[in-house]
Amino acid sequence: MTVDNARTFQVGDRVRVRPRLAIPIKPHQVAACLSPFLYPGEIIQCDVSADSESAAFVVRLEPHQFERVWDLEQNFYADELHRHDCDCSECGLS
């Protein structure tokens, strides 16, 4: 993703992302896992520098129906964001 593309994302934009999950593997121990599916959220903070590799965003995810499956606010890089209404094959919306 180019710097210009990263800068098109702004606070308040609706996006889809793959949340990071904490999967219990033993009592008092969890393993980090990246969701295989995209979920909706809203950008609440942007940090876009001159370098697209370091463009970072804080996204507030919509709550999951099964309560606390993930942290509601998570950090993502620009290349992890998908527009909420995108039509790319990775989103499964094409």
Automatic annotation (TrEMBL):
Top-level taxonomic group: Bacteria
UniProt-recorded name of the protein: Uncharacterized protein
Protein's organism: Stackebrandtia endophytica
